[in-house]
Amino acid sequence: MGNPIPNPASAIILAGGKGTRLKRDKTTLILHGKPILNLIIARLNRLNFREIILVYGTDPKLFPLPVRKVGDLIPGSGVLGGILTGLTCSGTDLNFFIACDMPFPQVNLMEYLLQLAESPDFDCVVPVNRGYREPLFAVYRKTCLPVIKEQLERKNLRIAPIFSRLQTREVSETELDRFDPRRLSFFNINTPDDLPPAEEIFRSTEPAS
Question: Which of 103, 46, 105, 95 is nearest to 68 (CA)?
Fold first, then answer.
């Protein structure tokens, strides 16, 4: 794997969180001397996405990046609102979503999710990691929009209920083991304690990747 995705899709980075536990805006994080967003974008660029969109919830001046930037269409609506914004603004049917604090997306796993998502039978493709869905490392079609809109109109910001209402392809842990046995794709930086292990992961993986 590692080739450009056969059918163009968009990549959407969600950067609307406040970073409360981290006590700083996650988009300002520096990992191994580089902005975390630049590391994520570099990985995404390996798959030749049609475009990369950054959905932000705060001052866009924080993001001097070579990507398209859009503000939340429904401020304060959490992850679900960020997904709605990304899907609404995207110019492609298929859209890969990733959180802005996940610096190690594995290219082969992203490619696998996108290949699964090409099937018209699925509205979304979501990995299941250690028994839990990973909705911020997943692929969503625009067909998800009506369900998401309806839920937001009911002021329900929880993302879990949408999967039972959509044609959801869950990616099993056995499948994940083929592409990301260490589950590096799902490592995220939530607190200052996560920074040292992130540095260690970077040093151990970046030369090989």
Answer: 95
